[in-house]
Amino acid sequence: MLSIRSKPDTLNYSLSLPPIEVASTQAQVTVKLLDGTTEIIEENYSPLNHFTYLVLKYSLLIDDLLTIDRPKDDLVTIHEQGCRTFTVSITDADMTVNIAFKVLKGFYYRQPIDLEFITSTNWLNIAILPQTVRTHQPVYLTAYPGESVTVKVYCLFEDNTTALLSYATLQALKLQTVDVSAYLVQRNSTKKLKQYTVYAVNSANKIILRKQVFVVEQYNHVVDEFFVFQNRLGGFDSLVMSGEQKETFKNETSTAIMQEEYVVEYAGTLSRSVKKNTGYIQSRQHRQLLIDFIFSKQRYHLLDGAFRAINLKDPAIDPTKNALNDFDIEFSYQDTMLAYPYIVQAPNFLKL
Known about the structure:
The protein is mainly β. It is about 10% helix and about 45% strand. The chain is built from four helices and 23 strands.
């Protein structure tokens, strides 16, 4: 006979997934982990005695099975592989117990906490206070709503007039990201956008996902660099680094001696590294975004009009309290061919 002492909640984050604790009066217990209907593993255990509980931990395994892709060009991106249903089937000679639960890739706090309430009322983004965004900066909000909702955008223009837009629709119980970049909101009006507030309402026009305020600033193409990353909540955030930048292009050559007289280069490893200063840290929220950025496993730099996956080199954020802080972030591109800089094409002029 099986006795379950601990099990996951209905909805869980992968990196805080509670273990399953089970005891059996039988000599052997068979445990299966299923992803939907696909069996992932099957293991047999021999309990020490019927008083000793087996502790089954699947946190890291399930986290590796889940993936969240970067938002594409669509206004709303659904991350089908970012939240899935798993089942643990436990069997001994007397009975079988099936434990089903949903897992969302990421981490909030150690469970138990009410993740169903948190995800149904909050955007899955680090920044919750008003934040400044550049006119060309990619800006995303990610959600896992408990019901179908409509995303609203309240716009404030420079002439102090306002407008309310029905921006997008999000499906119930799906992990999805909506692109709320300032330039996409701006295209809905000929007036210059100064500030906009994004929130989501249900069919009864009740606010379900809290208001997020964005203050628009002009993009400075000389110093501003845009970065997008997957945050710990399973969503996507972006940030701007506006400090000094230094690029290093390097070719590590390999040579050989030919005919005992000539040294010939026969191969080379190309690399391109960038050291970018963050600019002064403006707030606690800004610091939190940077910390999540260096901890992320999925980061992108907007280079030559496209998102380029990057790797960081020993990143560290070590702020001094009650002081003005800035940090250097060094990174390289996963695509080694980006060691070649972009060649700017000469403009074509119309000949009359």
